[in-house]
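Pasting as-is:
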Amino acid sequence: GDDFDDPGFNAGFAQAIRDVVDVLHGAATLPPQAGHASGRFDADVSPWTIAYILGREWEPYSIVGFNEKPGAARAFAGTHFTIAEGSPTEVWMVRQCDLLVSYEDARYGAQRPIAYTNWPTTDPIVHPTETSYDQQMRYRGLTYDRDPGAPPVHEEEGVSLDPSRVRRTARNRAGWFASYHVYPYYPDFMLYDPGYARAASSLGRSNFFGYLQDLRRAHRGIPLVVAEFGVPSSRGNAHLQPQGWHHGGLSEQAVAAADVRLAREIREAGAAGAIVFAWMDEWFKRNWFTMGTELPAERGRLWHNVMSSEEHYGVLAVRAGDSATVPLPGGPAARWQALRAVAAGRLVGADSATLRVGQDAAYVYLALESPAWRGRPFPWPRVRLQIAIDTHDAFRGQTVLPFSGIRSAIGWEYLVSIDGPRDARLEVTPDYLPYMPERLTGSGAHFGEHFRRPLYPQRRADGVFDPLWALTNRPRFTSAGVQVRGQGLTVGRLVNGRAREDSNADWWYDAPSGTIQVRLPWALLNVSDPSSRLVVSESEPEVALGRRDGPRSVLVGVPTEGFHFGIVAWTPGPDVLGALPALDAYGNWPRERFPLWEWPTWETPAYHTYLKPVYFALQRLWAAP
């Protein structure tokens, strides 16, 4: 609930505060508890601990709920801190900070600076471009009655936490500061405020810097620390930002440049310090862009979703597979040639072409090779390739391939089309598209909707595959009633490149070995949990499709036997130049010619670590005068 004064909650929070202080001083033994560290802590690391920051980012609806509690305190006079006029939530925060400082002072004779966590959503600044959910509905011309049982609405404006209201007592020797998590791509007011859009640091135009200047002005008299900042190196991108500092979709090389720029602007804005988020990649993290199809959620830690931005903030990369054997686009050909062969035959002037397939906790790897192609450039765009993939059920999906026109007894959920180095894409049969099509997101019943339902492939024979386009920035109305268009991107676009130059590269043609190397993220194939071989489906397909009444259908992970693959080489005309497996006498694909590719499940994923370029870039920055 939203009652910060709940006795049980407060008792647990107070104990957590004491535990943290004792752990830092090497004087704690903590019992096992789910979601918490445990064991004996006997190393005193307090001399290297600069300060405390209490709590996490606070949800605005929780703050509103507690602030509206009758009789909640609006002032506090503690041993080390006071607040004369504050909201109930601000008073509660200060009380907890006072508890921590008092406990450490009394038990260990030490004090250090402290703050509570804050973020732009609950800053004390008025953001004129931001509108509430009620205003958004009104500007759309919609009337509605909010369901009392519905989840609370997250608002980016309307309630604040103001640390500048806090005062130190004479007994507080260490100090008080403001702590904010500030990322360049969120909330939307950072992107749309005209003042922020015009702002520029000494390094150039920067909405981020414009906001930081406002934040510094709002906290005159106390130090301001940006306790989290950075951009992630995920393949997936959950939010676009004007200067290109997106919520993902950045290579490790681009992240290094961005984080250095952000760090320099934080200093230029007058902040007292900054902390890069985070030390290491975190596979267990979840993100709105992908969490709906990570099923079951509790197994997300067992695989690496490269489409999830939240898993990729680390300075230390945590990557799937063995560093000595993982295939990389443009990397050692021997690693691709070591994958298991699943089909062989004639293709594009080659008497012998082979498709090899492999996997790890992040990707499916496809290697198409032929001795006849070695040492030669591939004949794009005269020759084009299609890789059809069946993931869900061989009796469902698209049975006709576009352009080549090949008919198949197996239904395909996905199609990789490679028309040349700058034109490659992954597309999906329309019934299995997880994202709302772009044409529907700007108006009408699906205004601003990101996800599409139901997700259940149907058998069809119309040759249609839809692009994997996803809405990242929802359309919205400003406080003046002006509509801001939504933005999105084609997540199914496959980027050609070497992984050593672009960590998110999807494919490469290696001429010396005559191999087309492709890696596809599990999440882009609607695999909900590769570790247990599950794919996304509906819990009640017939209900979801409107064929019968019954319990509401929800997305679930269902077992798949494995995948089937089919490859076609064709030339505009169109003429088919070859297929793996071979076509029958009628130019079709019989079911019995497709071997099933299945992969082993796991409970412990293989992974390796390395320092990303951002580590060395920040090292150089902080070593500079």
